[in-house]
Amino acid sequence: MKLHGDIISPFVRMCLVTAQEVGLGGKVEQVQTRADPTTVNQTLSALSPVGKVPVLVTDHNHPLYDSRVIIEYLCHVSGNKTLIPDDGVKRFRVLTLQALGQAIAEAGVAFRYETAVRPQGLQWREWIARHELRVKAEFDDLEKTWAKDLSELTSGSIAVAVALSYLDFRIPDWQWRKDRPLLQAFHDAFSRRPSMQATALKPA
Ligand SMILES: N[C@@H](CCC(=O)N[C@@H](CS)C(=O)NCC(=O)O)C(=O)O
């Protein structure tokens, strides 16, 4: 299987961490593919009309996107039933936690595009402020209501750990650790997992 993307993308890294956790690390080959919000990457566009990373090309040559679908596919082909449990109550709790992690990653990537890629005169202050408010609410909710769920290895805890690591790398000013000891303890422990170590982001 070939996973197109750049590991700096939190969505790509969520897939790579999942691959390691379900025992498919050796079967998923990462193909360095960059996606830029202002230019078309022809390789990527040929695989997906969305034109974003990640895209997984299966051994049967089917392109799959987005990261949530790829993660579910990796669980499916490996026979893993714990990262996304079948049981109803648990399943939707895990998927909601995954959505929360994905939302933090989306806000981080959008903020990064707006502040680092968009020309200064065109930046939209209110929009940036809205993202900062949104992530603050998300961090607080993780601290207040999700500590027990985060203690389990699921697609939810993977998404949150990877999203927070992305913020450490790109937007340390958001200071998600401040006054959130449970979230910090979760991230410290999760970051020691071999899957996170093997995919750690290195400063350029
Ligand atoms: N919902 C998508 C989000 C993917 C995404 O936003 N990828 C970014 C990189 S982090 C991208 O490809 N951006 C290029 C663009 O916006 O054109 C997923 O979960 O895979």
TrEMBL record:
Q: Which organism is it from?
A: Taklimakanibacter albus
What name has this protein been given in UniProt? Glutathione S-transferase family protein
